[in-house]
Structures are given as structure tokens and as C-alpha cells.
Design goal:
single chain; 332 residues; Rossmann fold; five-stranded parallel sheet; 12 helices; binds nicotinamide-adenine-dinucleotide
Length: 332
Amino acid sequence: MIVTVYSTHPWDQDYLTAANSHHDLRFLEAKLDLTTAPLAERSDAVCVFVNDTVDAEVIAILADLGVRTLALRSTGFNHVDVRAAIERDIRVLRVPAYSPNAVAEHTLALLLTLNRGTHRAHNRVREGNFRLDGLLGWDLAGKTAGVIGTGRIGQVVSTIFRGFGMEVIAHDPFPNAVITGLGIPYVPIRELFARSDVITLHCPLTPETYHLIDADAIEAMERRPTIINTSRGALVDTIAVIDGLKSDRVGGLAIDVYEEEGDLFFEDLSNTVIQDDVFSRLLTLPNVLVTGHQAFFTKEAVRQIADVTIANLDAAEAGVGTTTQVTAAFVS
Ligand code: NAD
């Protein structure tokens, strides 16, 4: 098949090329949107990443060009109008289960770094400043972690928290038997907000979870929690969390994803003036830590993403069913 690969980064090209069976992969650095969709002319499939725009208008252009397969290099599909794709007879295939450890371990990296100020200490020591002011952390052992979403990633995060001696409580409309088997209780979301010292998000972005952490949720938090989001930016109402940080109701924020990250992440903007004032405000706060959507970024995970993507393209070409397909049931 001819496959136009949008939002190509060097690692995509390396790992997809290594995994490729026989497809004609056409790598583009450009993101997919209304203006770049026509570049998929003569392609059987397009392959996209998390910040590509795959709305109904873009899908209409791709369908008119004859594209029949949309291969997502991601687990989440919130950026895709799946209904529009199905209506236009385009199969949407994703990577449902690549290394959950990659994201889970990055979640812990964010928490440990923010709590102990490792990033600030590193910069200070390089400047010859060995003072400890502002670096006072707290033991994770004995604290309560609230895990929202206990699927593949949330499960690994929960077991790691347990390893640190934390009490873990969880919220998920579909309880996971492994979690209950560990003796981790499922609690109503407001109870989780009230009891947690750490709140970490591992649920998908859906209309129900949009701004799950908003002013009302923050009002219910009683223990100045550190909030961690490695899932999807729009789970968090950023302005509400900035207010929570300013009023000291929220103790810290560590994010790998951001509501408006599409205009920022994966680019070198070091010589430009960032126009997003909310994002810039976040960066001024000492108790905020931001990484640029890198939680997935381990060799193991990138290899799995490439392998599953190529297997998806093989299945699409052969016209055979696969469990990686995003069907109407996912969006009903
Ligand atoms: P998963 O499907 O295995 O688990 C998601 C869990 O969320 C499920 O158990 C589901 O029941 C639960 N859930 C759904 N609605 C909920 C709600 N309203 N409240 C609480 N829980 C709810 O997915 P996963 O592989 O664990 O991935 C979780 C998320 O992580 C993905 O949706 C994706 O957005 C994000 N992710 C981020 C990165 C990154 O690089 N930062 C990489 C991979 C995945």
C-alpha cells in the first residue's frame, strides 16, 4: 500500500522503516490538517500521531482522495472523528497496547522530580549553589495516591505506588480485577479528590472526562494534592488548576500533556515568542513541571508502536479483521 505518514519525527522514520514489510511509506514532517490533507493523493492509507487534525472535514478530503485506512500511531483516538471515518468507509486502526510501563514510569519520574526538586537541584549545583532552600519534599511512603482510570497504565502505576509504600485508592467505571485483587478500593470520584495526596490521571479523553479536573473538583480536594496528568491535556481545566495552585489548594502540577499542546509540543520553539499565555503562566510557577508529551518515548514503546502500525497496515491491505480497529462501539 502507499502510505502517507504525517508528523514524522526521526524516530518514526527509523522504527517504521525497520518494521516495514513491503509498504511504500511516504514520510512527511507536516502535521495532517485541512491544508496538508491533499498531500495524501494516491495513498491507500495515512498514518497519524496525536496532534494531527483528523476531523470530519479532513476525513472528507482523505475519502475523496481514495484513502481507505487511517493508522494511528497512538492508543488514544480522541483527535479522530471516528463516526465521520466510518461513514466514509475509512477503517481506523490504532495501537491499543504498547508498553504501559513507559507511561507509568514517566508518571513516577514526574512525581519524584517535582516532589524532590531534582530538576531545580541539578541546575543549582551546576551554578555552584548547594543550598537546599525550596527543595523540601515529602515521603511518598504512607501517603495516599488516587488513580483515576485503572486500565493498562493505571494498573502499572498503582503497583509502583504500592512499591513506594503508598496507600492507593482508585476510580474507574469499569473496575479491574487485578486492582481489586491487590486490595485497592474503588471509591467515588469526590472521595478520591478529598482523600488523595497525589492524583494521577490514566483515563481516556471523552466527552464525559473533558475537564474532569475543574474548579469544582479542586474545591473537593482537601490535602493539597499533587496532580499528575500523563493522559490527555483536556482532562484538566488548566486555568482552574492555576487558580488552585495560586490559592494553595493544589500542591503541585506535573503534566506531560496540555490542552493546547498541538501548537507547541514536538517543535523547537526556543527562538520564538510563545503566544499561549496560560502555558507561559504555568512555566513561571515553581511547583509546576512540564514535559512535552514524552511519556511514551522509550525504545520498547516506540518499537511496539511501529510494529503494531505495520501489522495494522498489513491487515488493512489483506482486508482481514483485527482487534486494533476502532469501531462504532468505541464512540457510541
Ligand atoms: P486503557 O484503555 O487500558 O485504560 C483506560 C481506563 O480508563 C479504562 O479502565 C477505563 O474504564 C477508564 N475510564 C474510562 N472513563 C473513565 C472515567 N470517566 N473515570 C475513570 N476512569 C475511566 O488505556 P491505557 O493504555 O491505560 O491509557 C490511558 C490513557 O493514557 C490513554 O487514553 C491515553 O490518552 C494516554 N496515553 C498517554 C501517553 C503519553 O505519551 N503521554 C501514551 C499512551 C497513552
